[in-house]
């Protein structure tokens, strides 16, 4: 846990702490570690022949999966959105170096892969191909994420996390005490559908009393993996002032949102906010 002290926080009487899950592991960082933990356990128990998943060309999820597969000596296969570029970016180069079999698919084919939700839903499941949905989502992912809550060893009022598929948000909601508030910051544009996804993930998996939660949709800075000059200078400032590394796809948008909400007086004096730093710094190599 890292404390941030800034004028605006002092003025508002609000405390801000960052839970540094980006420091969990040098490669398998942040929420991708959390989401893979029990999923990989399950796959190993089944003795699968391979781990198969999907992601974009900067995917933190595929990056973590490829490295885990290498360490566990389980073959991995990644379906990557878009055409194979002439020069591979650092993320895809790592995937290749770690032995992940790469298959580049069109955007349309990529969307169709989203129909597969369960680990055994691939047509070639009979060959032992264990499927991990986009971003490593799934019931077992929620269980891994829930462990974040036990590690927050101080009183707090509000939890904040960046959302892609919102699996991490859902996992936090399953485990946070009912007197807390959990706030998700959508990293993509038009993410209202994620509210339904969260409700679907939560249905049937947890107790009746969940904490209150919300998802804010207006901090995407133009869309998924888009940035604005304001966001880039915010990242720069946070690095200089607090030695806090952020990337522009997720974590910077979440912290930017917190600062914007502070300016608006959204938090009450005396409240303590904990932001989960979900990692992902590999994806921003060479860009910030
Ligand atoms: C994948 C990722 C997220 C989004 O997690 P979801 O569970 O898909 O919402 C957030 N932050 C970082 C750094 C990520 O890599």
Explain how this protein is built:
This protein is of the alpha/beta class. It has ten helices and ten strands. The chain has helices spanning 7-12, 30-46, 60-72, 90-97, 107-113, 139-150, 167-175, 193-202, 229-242, 251-263; strands at residues 2-4, 15-20, 50-55, 76-81, 101-105, 129-132, 158-163, 181-186, 212-216, 272-277. The strands form two sheets. It has a six-stranded mixed beta sheet with strand order 1-2-10-7-8-9. It has a four-stranded parallel beta sheet with strand order 5-4-3-6. α3 links the parallel β3 and β4 (76-81). α2 (30-46) crosses α6, α3 runs parallel beside α4 (90-97) and α7 (167-175) packs across α8. The longest helix has 17 residues, at 30-46. The chain is globular. It starts with a strand and ends in an 11-residue tail after the last strand. The mean pLDDT is 95. The chain binds pyridoxal-5'-phosphate. Residues 30-32, 60-61, 135, 162-169, 250-251, 278-280 line the site of pyridoxal-5'-phosphate (PLP).
Entry keywords:
six-stranded mixed β-sheet, alpha/beta, 288 residues, 10 helices, four-stranded parallel β-sheet, binds pyridoxal-5'-phosphate
Q: What amount of the residues lies in strands?
A: 15-25%
Uncertain segments: none
CA-CA gap between termini: 24 Å
Count of strand segments: 10
Shape: globular
Major β-sheet annotation: 6 strands, mixed
Share of helical residues: 25-40%
Mean pLDDT: 95
Strand order, main sheet: write it out: 1-2-10-7-8-9
What multimeric state do the chains show? single chain
Hetero groups in this structure are: pyridoxal-5'-phosphate
* Order of SSEs: EHEHEHEHEHEHEHEHEHHE
Briefly note the structural class of the backbone: alpha/beta
Whole-number radius of gyration?
19 Å
What is the overall number of helices?
10
């Amino acid at each position: 846990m890292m404390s941030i002290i800034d004028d605006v926080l002092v003025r508002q009487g609000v405390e801000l702490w960052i839970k540094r899950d980006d420091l969990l592991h040098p490669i398998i960082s942040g929420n991708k570690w959390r989401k893979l933990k029990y999923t990989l356990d399950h796959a190993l128990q089944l003795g699968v022949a391979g781990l198969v998943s999907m992601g974009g060309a900067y995917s933190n999820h595929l990056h973590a999966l490829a490295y885990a597969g290498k360490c566990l000596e389980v073959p991995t296969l990644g379906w990557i959105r878009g055409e194979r570029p002439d020069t591979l970016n650092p993320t895809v180069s790592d995937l290749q170096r770690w032995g992940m079999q790469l298959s580049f698919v069109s955007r349309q084919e990529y969307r169709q892969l989203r129909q597969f939700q369960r680990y055994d839903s691939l047509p070639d499941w009979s060959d032992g191909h264990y499927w991990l949905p986009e971003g490593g989502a799934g019931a077992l992912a929620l269980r891994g994420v829930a462990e974040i809550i036990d590690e927050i060893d101080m009183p707090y009022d509000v939890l904040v996390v960046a959302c892609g598929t919102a699996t991490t948000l859902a996992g936090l909601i399953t485990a946070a005490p009912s007197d807390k508030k959990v706030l998700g910051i959508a990293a993509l544009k038009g993410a209202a559908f994620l509210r339904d996804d969260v409700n679907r993930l939560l249905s049937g998996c947890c107790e009746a009393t969940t904490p209150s939660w919300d998802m804010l949709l207006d901090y995407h800075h133009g869309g998924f993996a888009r940035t604005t000059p304001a966001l880039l200078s915010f990242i720069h400032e946070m690095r200089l002032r607090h030695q806090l590394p952020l990337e522009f796809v997720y974590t910077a948008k979440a912290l930017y949102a917190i600062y914007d909400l502070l300016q608006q007086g959204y938090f009450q004096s005396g409240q303590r906010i904990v932001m989960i730093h979900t990692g992902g710094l590999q994806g921003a190599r060479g860009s910030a």
